[in-house]
Amino acid sequence: MTENGALAGGHLHRADIDRLVTPDHVHRRLYTDDAIFEQEMRTVFGGSWAYVGHESELAEPGSFVRRRLGTRAVLLTRSAGGEISVVLNRCSHRGTLLVTEDHGCSAVFTCPYHGWRFDVDGRLKNVPVPSSYEDVRSGRFDLGRAHVASYRGFVFASLADEPPELETWLGAAKPWLDEYIDRYPDARIQVHATPLRYEFAANWKVSWDNAADGIHATFAHRSYNLLGKEADTETVLARNPASTPIVSRAYPFGHSVVDQRPSIPGGPWSTMRSLPTTDELVDSLRRRGLASREVLDLGTGSMVNLNLFPNLIFVGNQLVVVEPVAVNRTRWSVYLLSAPSAPEETDLMRLRVDEDFVSFGTPDDFEMFERIQEGLSIPEAEWIDTSRGAALDTEDPEVVGVLMGDVATEAPIRGYLREWTRLMTEQPPLRTRPVSPRPTVSR
Ligand code: FES
Ligand SMILES: [Fe+2]
Predict the structure, then answer these.
(1) For a designed S-S bond to 28, which of 66, 331, 376, 423 qualifies (C-beta 3.0 to 4.6 A apart)?
(2) Ligand 1 contact via 87 beta carbon (within 6 Å)
(3) Residue 263: which of 245, 289, 275 has the closest Cα?
(4) Whose CA is nearest to atom 4 of ligand 1?
(5) Per-residue pLDDT tens for 187-198?
């Protein structure tokens, strides 16, 4: 593959991709090429399941949140009957963006341009001046819809004709999601619809590569680790990465997990340092007899990094949704989760924990992402090494198709790139679908 080879414009086929992704290297163009980015937005996002939101964000009939499926503007909605839908945020008349509020509740969506109205499940309801349309209610003017599937409140969308069953897609990563949900008393999770939003000048995959990178924390987050030491605690991040028993796993469909808990026998709470108000909150829990290990652990981060390819990262107590903007620009929407069935002190502690790492740790990551993107702009240095740990990885004895390695392995990167390659190259064209088959109505 030469630098000015077969990639200029057009669709990349299997042979092109195979020249760019080898078992132990990736070509820089995956992170810098506009044509690849556009193909990803058509095939990787929407070609399989991608996370769009949580049912708890849709409290009542008519609730909606504005989201993205890759770079497509979509709305996640709950209809009067309670059904959850993902519809294109695009008027079916001339294409106007229908909704600009990030979230809300509405009986209908009304296009500001010519006043067409749609039910929140996408069905065209009313055209103020219907002259000349013979078939305005035939369904052809309904908003485009995606397949939607939900697992214990987590909602995913797909534009594939026949996406895999959601539970098949979650596969061996599903028990990790179950465990995450079951940390919450009564398995009740409230996701707050307004995220913290960050943007950085790097390709979205730079941040995906980092999601299961268990070794960078010791170096890139050094100042954060020192904060922990000053408070006379040892965070998991600060340990010597060469000797930690942390295990990293790469799953089918590109998912991955880094379980930090083997390195912290005292559990998540043992890593907690004092943050503003947290001592008082713990005192309050103790006074009320509620300071159980489970409650205190719930007030700390989960210490399990679960990554569901291509866009959902569970980190600490937060959900990071990776939103590509351009080949060299990415948004992270960071959602806060609270535990409605836990003592109220727990959520207040979680807020302090939530703001801690995003304030003092995440900026390190963003700086690395932007420095990587800058480094990858050098045309003569074409290749990125992804071989770390490959010779040491083993099959998980309990789960077929799962590769395990130590904290330093790049198996999760190699794993998601296999799924990325599959979606980029084996994908039939994606499309939206009508609300429901509806006979043509003659007037
Ligand atoms: S573009 Fe929406 S009603 Fe015309
Ligand atoms: Fe990091």
Answers:
(1) 376
(2) no
(3) 245
(4) 114
(5) 999 999 899 999
